[in-house]
Amino acid sequence: MKYIDLHSHTDFSDAVISLDHSLCVADELGLSLFSVTDHNTVEAYSALPRYRHLFGGKILPGVELSTTFKGDVIEVIGYGINTEKMDALIKRNYLSYYDKQVKEARLDTEAMLAAGVTLDAEFVRAMIEEPWTLFDPSRETNRPFLLAEIKRHPENLRFFESEDEFLNLDRHRFTRNYLFNAQSRLYSDQSSLSAALLTVLDMIKSCGGLSFLAHPFAYSQNVFSSLDDLAASGLDGMECFYGTFTPEQKKFMFDFCEEKGLYKSGGSDYHGIAMRPQNILGRSAGEPIPFTLIEPWFEKVENNLM
User: Which CATH code fits 3-94+194-304?
Assistant: First the structure.
């Protein structure tokens, strides 16, 4: 049996591990096919020739592009792409990581103020005028710092479902369930930071790739309840096997794709154990991801393997 992982990240985007580390781990696991799908960048593929010898399997070039759907932020993974052409398209349609984090800090802070969230005046000034004094935009996002500031003010409890949630909410749930959720009072419109969905699909197609919705269960109910609309949007498939999916979630997505005639993909969303210990490279719900999952579409991209 051959196994794969088609969703991983490196420190060329937001992960804490290097490209060579990822390749070594994938090789130790004996994966037959591996893909680096960094956020809004394919820079890792420019560095790949220096480290290609570290992995004995095949590499499927990929990228994870941010976009919005019904106001919510979602991610679409492109597989089998021409990375040089994609690099040019990304530079035309996306901000650099640094510039995105700077603009994002301003957008998020202004959204909180508009909602009536209590924030210290100096914190607001820094986030809007010079966020680099609070965090490193070349490596970090503002969300952990924004959430910590929100929690410093007990009166902000009113924006959350319960005191327990207010006290224990982590930045990932804060981002997905509040900032990226168009139905939330704390919604922060991110549409100016990314290309539109149809543009993203066109980018992937023009680079010879196939497009897949990443981690469907990671989004708000607003998105998940609209999976039928997403299935009809022009996507080639959806991620059915994912690092933190339960067996029931994997089955749901597998059956959904079967019903809609969509291709299936799978990956761990590995960012390094130190960053996301629950997302283990090569695993979905604790099990390896079989190559047979992608056999129906693999021949469409295998000429682009590295």
Answer: 3.20.20.140
